[in-house]
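If you are new to this repository, start here. Below is one unmodified record pulled from the training split, so you can see the exact layout before writing a loader.
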Amino acid sequence: MELAIGPLHRVAVHFPIALVLAAAVAEYLAMSRGERALRQAARYCVTFGAASALVAAATGYALAAALDPAGAHGELVERHRWTGVGLCAASALAAVLARRCERPDGGLAQLGYRLALWTAAALAALAAWQGGGLAHGL
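And here is the target side for that same chain:
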């Protein structure tokens, strides 16, 4: 069963990368322009990005299970794995804090949300680079 979902990792990874990076850009634009619609878009993107990151992580673990840990890319696979775990955690935290920001007393949550979101965006970019190196040679 593990190997059956592993090949889906190459498809599943594109959703969290795109959604988390789009959320970070939308939040930045919302901050600079003060547009509520952009802030809402950012929060929807990070929520769906966090959910899709879990799917990408599950399929990635299944794919890595089929690899030889002592193989040529063993160290990069391990770094990529933990970068993906960090992305899952940061995007999930950002999604939770995004909901907390909507409350009237959500000022501190707003700061935490933005830090978690931009951390998730940086981790998404790093995981994408590492994954590209694994798929196409680094």
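Two things worth knowing about this chain: The helical segments are 2-5, 9-12, 14-33, 36-65, 74-100, 107-136. The mean pLDDT is 89.
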